[in-house]
């Protein structure tokens, strides 16, 4: 069982690193390629919006490498990917919808895997007080 946990952790890190590299690269490309400005204008977005998306993709990619923040980064990138898929669908670019949806699945995997502790029920380590001063006895803590 321990081997499975280690393999799972290594696999998750590999996915995180590859996704981080991909999002940083695509975010940087938005600053360097005029094609992005042309596409965003064609899709009806305001001038400079491609740079905002690029900056968010770079930030999200970097934050994927921070375990405590990677689920939030996955959520941020997931929102961007939903917007990308919708943009392609609404602009009759159906073949281009698949890539954002595939990356959305990857972000969902990362988000769920990194937040799995939040899904576990809380474990009570100390019994609830029932003596003098407790809420059940009508003591000083009573509101």
TrEMBL record:
It is found in: Membrane. Its main location: membrane. The chain crosses the membrane at residues 7-28, 48-66, 73-91, 97-114. Coiled coil: none annotated. Pfam families: DoxX_2 (PF13564). It comes from the Bacteria. Keywords: Membrane, Transmembrane, Transmembrane helix. It is a multi-pass membrane protein. Residues 124-143 are annotated as: Disordered. The keyword Protein biosynthesis does not apply. This is DoxX.
């Amino acid at each position: 069982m321990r081997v499975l946990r280690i393999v799972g952790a290594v696999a998750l890190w590999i996915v995180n690193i590859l996704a981080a590299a991909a999002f940083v690269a695509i975010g940087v490309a938005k600053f360097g390629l005029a094609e992005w400005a042309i596409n965003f204008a064609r899709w009806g977005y305001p001038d400079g919006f491609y740079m905002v998306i690029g900056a968010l993709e770079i930030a999200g990619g970097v934050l994927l490498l921070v375990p405590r923040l990677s689920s939030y980064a996955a959520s941020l990138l997931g929102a961007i990917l939903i917007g990308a898929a919708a943009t392609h669908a609404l602009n009759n670019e159906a073949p281009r919808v698949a890539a954002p949806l595939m990356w959305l699945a990857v972000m969902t995997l990362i988000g769920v895997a990194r937040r799995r502790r939040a899904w576990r029920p809380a474990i009570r380590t100390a019994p609830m007080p029932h003596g003098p001063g407790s809420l059940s006895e009508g003591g000083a803590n009573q509101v």
